[in-house]
Amino acid sequence: MSTPAASSRNLRARLRRLALGLVCAPIFVFLMLPLVVVFPLSLSSAPYLQFPPPGLSWRWYQSYFGDPVWIDATVRSLVIGATTTLASLAVGMPLAFSLVRGRYWGRKLLDRLAIAPLIVPTIIISVAIYGLFAKLKLIGAWYGIALAHTILALPFVIIILGASLRGLDENLEQAALGLGASRWQAILRVTLPEIRPSIVTAAVLAFITSFDELVVAMFLAGPQMTLPKKMFDNIRMEIDPTIAAVSVLQILIITAALLIAQRFGRGATPMDINGA
Amino acid sequence: MDAIATSAHAHRGSPAAIERRRQRMLAALGVPALALLAVLFAYPVLRLMALSMEGGSLTWYAKALGESFYLEVFWITVRIAVIVTLATLVLSYPIAYFLATATHLGAALGFALVVLPLWTSILVRTYAWMVLLGRNGVVNKSLMAVGIIDEPLALLHNELGVVIGMVHVLMPYMVLPVYAAMRRVDPDLLQAAEGLGAGALRIFYRVFLPLSAQGIYAGCTLVFVLSVGFFITPALLGGGRVIMIAVLIEQQVREVLNWSFASALATVLLVGTIAIYGLAQRAIGERADGAT
């Protein structure tokens, strides 16, 4: 039995909730619209942009899989992405340990330096490394792009692993030491398994950072193509729906990467970035 | 960590010596990253900045900040960044509020909708906006079919198109910090305000909004700083007509091959970005201190 005052308050709360929903609904539509629109477009039978598509066909998927330039660009981007992931973890994991547990001089400065690529506009990093690599004759080398991408991915690795290490109960490691483990054993057998979900999250983010990256690749790839570079050129030159098919495939690849992270990590949400 | 020091004490010297050794090792763990960052980040960026003052003169800065065409580029960049930041805030605040107050299922669904675009390639999204906003695009066709407009609106290859595309790309960067701040608001405070007789609007303006302001500042800083350096969206949705600073730098390096001028432009952009970021961090920090 609720009093009339309480029920009127309840009604008002419900109305407010409804109003909020009405405000939010079109904003959610705005967020999803571009993602949704590429699916029907990729199955269009028309050779130009037409919406809704006049008929359905697989021809744009065939044109993607049948074109060695597209496939070559995709493979190169996958290789660069994998290399970036490994490199940024190899360098970033020790750095995260060092920054979280160290109390040495210059630690704050090193922390700032490692996070800086997140704030410094990518165009500046790209042009700067382009100038250096042109001198070293590294333009067009896939590993040059991977190295540059490692710089871009490093902040994510540091932020995610750093947050995880800070939240870690160091008593566990001490218990292992007390039980006779060496320091390396304690780290390998206790600490690393404990932060494994964050390592997976960091790896996925590092991979996507590279796999999706255009500006650095545009400068450093020379005549070579990466997937984003090929996409950019296609969007600029001729818009045929092959790009829509590629978009759908890319959405699927990224979704697969996220599902892997969900399975092995503990929820790879960008909240991890934000929480730090 | 003290426990390690004590347990090892018996074997390897004084605790202070062990701690020193440990710190040396921790510092050494940072060396590979430091080397990489020095060679591939700090050195190239400083080298680029040095190019702008080759010959010891400030000619290129005079050109960047003196000629009206280039000043216009800076002005357009800042104007678009401000509009994008405000528009992003207006659209993100209700979404963040929805997420912070929704039921478990609603929040999970809402989060998926916010985060999914974040994981989708910027190129894919920008391409989709070209499809949506073109003269014969989905938006124009729908509006004409409904009879709201007779002529297609110019939504693409102008500032409006760039702003729409950028807002879409940057919205998650606003929603997430604002949401995080809203979650930190103590519901007891809202209850207390209600118990003291404040109406819903008053509670919102006097209690909830100030308490979530921290997230608004953080989100605005992030979105503004990211906006200023944006390249892909203006390059594609601007159709060559909306020249933002990053687009101009790319043209100077790749088409005009004027490294010195590109370097001066890059230096102005970099110094501006760091100054804005630094000032905002300081302001946010002071507010945070004041709150505790």
Structural summary, described in words:
The complex is a heterodimer of chains A (276) and B (292). By secondary structure, chain A is an all-alpha fold. Chain A has a single domain (67-274), classed as Orthogonal Bundle (MetI-like fold). Chain A has 13 helices and no strands. Chain A has helices at residues 4-42, 59-65, 68-101, 107-115, 122-136, 142-166, 170-178, 183-194, 196-211, 215-220, 227-237, 242-264, 271-274. The longest helix of chain A has 39 residues, at 4-42. Residues 267-276 of chain A have low confidence and may be disordered. With 292 residues, chain B is mostly helical. Chain B folds into two domains: 1-51, no CATH class; 58-291, MetI-like (MetI-like fold, Orthogonal Bundle). Chain B is 82% helix and 0% strand. Chain B contains 14 helices and no strands. The longest helix of chain B has 34 residues, at 68-101. Chain B is globular. The model of chain B has no long low-confidence stretch (mean pLDDT 88). At the A-B interface, helix 1, helix 3, helix 4, helix 5 and helix 6 of A face helix 1, helix 2, helix 3, helix 5 and helix 6 of B.
